[in-house]
Each structure stands twice: as C-alpha cells, then as structure tokens.
Specification:
By secondary structure, this protein is an alpha/beta fold. It has one domain: 3-Layer(aba) Sandwich (Rossmann fold), CATH 3.40.50.1820. Helices cover about 35% and strands about 20% of the residues. The strands form two sheets. Strands 1-2-4-3-5-6-9-10 form an eight-stranded mixed sheet, sandwiched between helices. A two-stranded antiparallel ribbon has the order 7-8. It starts with a strand and ends in a 17-residue tail after the last helix.
Length: about 290
C-alpha cells in the first residue's frame, strides 16, 4: 500500500489538501471520498484500509474551510464552490490515473455535495455511494439554523458552534475519544453555509429524476444527526433501476466508524464489485490493512 498527500487547485485557484492511498496491484476502480461538516480526509481510514485489499484505490480531499485546506471554518460564499472544487479534484485524479473509473462516496454533508455533483456531472462517475446524507433538517438546534439563515445576507461569515451531540457519531467509545482530541475537526457552521445548504437540498429534491448514476444509499437506523426517514423517502423517489438501500437498525451517524463498520464496508465492497468494469472475486470476510 502506498500513501501520499499534497495539494491541488480548487475553484478560484485555492490550494486544497488531499490524500491518496494506492494498492500494490493495479486497481479495479478509485474511491473518491468526501467528508462531512467539521470533518477531514483522514476520517475514512476504516474504509480505506478494508477496501484497498479488495483492489480499490482511494483519494480524499479536505473541503475548503476544513482540515488542512484554507478558508474560514465552515464557510462558503456559494454552494458552487463545493461542486467546482470536487469537479477540479476529479479532473486532477483522472489526469493522474489515466482515466480509471471513479466511484464517489460522500458522507453526511459530503453526501449532499456528492449528490449535487452527480446531478450536474453524471458522466464523470461510475457510481455514487451516500452514507447518512444530509437531505433534510439535521441535528442542529432549530434556532441556530434560523439565526444563520436570517443573517446570511447581512453577515454571511457569522458563525456558531453547531451544537451537535458528538456522542451521536458512533457507539465506539474509542472513536469518540479520538474525535474529541482531533485538532483537525471543528464544530462551526456559518450563516451563508446554512442558507446555501437548504437551497441546495431543495434543488436536489426538485431534480431527483435527473439522477442517472448507479446509487448505493446507506443509513443508520439510530442516526440522530441526519434522518434515516429522509434517506428512505429520497430512495423511494429515485427513478433509476440501479439503486440499492441499506439501513443498519442500531447504527449511529458515522457508519464507517461505528461498531459494525465491517458489515457496512462489506456491503460497500460487494456493491463496488458488482459495478466495477474489472471486477475481481471479493475476499470475504474483509482483510483490513493497518494504517499508521
């Protein structure tokens, strides 16, 4: 396994941080990972270390205003910055990896970003994986959302701590301890981000019929951050035949870091293999690498 990191040029020539994990043999596809609000590219380690032995390379970026990327924490001027950053990242990957097929995996807010991207640029993707996507109201107190939307025009950079209960992320206490001590995580959202998030969610629901990319949708049944009911309702409205829904009754928000992450990633591996143009026999149960 090879790991590297660097920067690429995002929208407006902003230098955005990324990481790359690569198997020792030629991959059968590339996973492009998009984290949630307050997260960063290093949070998908369980997914990376379990899917690399299955023959998949992985790239992950730090969204602007997150992790090692520049920008005010949790701030965007316009939602299109997220979309065009992701478009630039995928172009960067295609240029480096000679057109290997890309599967986009977005989690939470990253799920919203990824879904919006798939609706605008379906030709760039082999498939779309959404885990606990934010498709409706999220676990932020209503009054904070109202304040954010109200101040968007007059004070767009106004920020508040989101107030999401961090214990809702995972049932694994060691994971919660790591989250609490992680200097790259943050808990902030801004007025402009709140406004553009809800505008984008409305647009997504109005354009569900435009989704043409094979879809795997995953949600924890005990998720208190994003609503599993929203994922169920969205899935019912998706019109393509190539769609799969998995719900894990007792799982919390961060499925890749919850107690049953092996089950979740096994489901992802099976789906990936069904949609890879160069599928190979799966090694089940998963044999996961140890990442430093």
């Amino acid at each position: 396994m090879n790991h590297s990191e660097g920067v690429f040029k995002g929208y407006g020539d902003l230098d955005l941080y990324y990481q790359r994990w690569w198997p020792d043999t030629p991959p059968q596809g590339i996973l492009v990972l998009v984290h949630g609000l307050g997260g960063h590219s290093g949070l998908f380690k369980n997914g990376v270390r379990c899917l690399l032995p299955q023959g998949y390379g992985a790239y992950a970026m730090d969204l602007r205003g997150h992790g090692r990327s520049p920008g005010q924490r949790g701030y965007i001027q316009h939602w299109s910055e997220f979309r065009e950053d992701l478009n630039a990242f995928l172009q960067f990957i295609r240029d480096r990896e000679q057109g290997e097929p890309c599967f986009l995996w977005g989690h939470s807010l990253g799920g919203t970003i990824s879904l919006d991207y798939a609706l605008h640029y379906p030709e760039h993707l082999q498939g779309l994986i959404l885990s606990a996507p934010a498709l409706d109201h999220v676990g932020v107190p209503f009054w904070k959302l109202a304040v954010g939307q109200g101040l968007s025009r007059v004070w767009p950079r106004f920020k508040l701590k989101l107030g999401i209960d961090h214990t809702a992320s995972s049932r694994d206490l060691s994971v919660l301890a790591d989250y609490s001590s992680d200097p790259l995580r943050h808990e902030y959202g801004t007025a402009r981000l709140a406004t553009h998030f809800f505008k984008t969610v409305r647009w997504i629901h109005q354009n569900i019929d435009r989704l043409k990319v094979p879809l795997l949708l995953l949600h924890g049944g005990a998720d208190l951050v994003t609503q599993p009911e929203s994922s169920r309702a969205f899935f019912r409205q998706v019109q393509i035949e190539d769609k799969t829904y998995r719900e894990y009754p007792n799982s919390y928000h961060d499925l890749y870091d919850d107690l049953n992450y092996i089950e979740v990633i096994s489901d992802i591996a099976t789906w990936l293999n069904q949609h890879s143009v160069r599928s190979q026999p799966l090694a089940l149960p998963l044999q996961c690498l140890v990442l430093s």
